[in-house]
Amino acid sequence: MLHGALYRPDDPDLVAGRRACQRAVAAFNATAPDDEDARRELLGELLGSFGANSEILPRFSCDYGIYISIGADCFVNYDAVFLDCAPITIGNHVSIGPRAQLLTALHPIDDIDARRAGWESAAPITLGDNVWLAAGVIVCPGVTIGADTVVGAGSVVTRDLPAGVLAAGNPCRILRPIG
Questions:
Q1: Which of 51, 59, 87, 149 is most buried (CB neighbours < 10 A)?
Q2: How many other C-beta atoms are found inside a 10 Å radius of the C-beta of residue 61?
Q3: CATH superfamily of 12-177
Q4: Is the pLDDT of residue 179 over 90?
Q5: What residues are labeled active site?
Q6: Would you give the DSSP letter of residue 68?
Q7: Which segments within 15-67 are labelled E, that is strand?
Q8: Helix (H, G, I), strand (E, B), or coil: what is residue 22?
């Protein structure tokens, strides 16, 4: 799964991993608004890494948690969905708007029998340092967004974006360089 090969999500080990993650996510999402220490502790246990001074606001959803690495000084706003069937790597000083989705899961397109049988694959997502994803951005499997790039609200990012650009739309396209 982590290397892009086909896998079955109903594999007992994967199901157990998702259930454990869901218990931790439920505890995180149930924390009191002023209990930042408890949220930080829960995220430290759930995620692969969670950088200093970073924050995720509830509601947060993910598949496994362990495959998510978040750098320092990051902010993830309400209702984020991170489907981490492949690694999700987020650099430092990244801001992610409300209802953003980072989706690594893929389903067979041309092989209808494999799709019908429930096979999946996944591809990693990487966000460079100082990226800003505005509200409602969807980042598709296998996408890398370069440092200092800003992605406008509601965009669907289907391809890599270079460093230092403003991009927006569905599908997302580069509008202009930044700076």
A1: 149
A2: 16
A3: Hexapeptide repeat proteins (2.160.10.10)
A4: no
A5: 107
A6: E
A7: 49-50, 55-56, 60-62
A8: helix
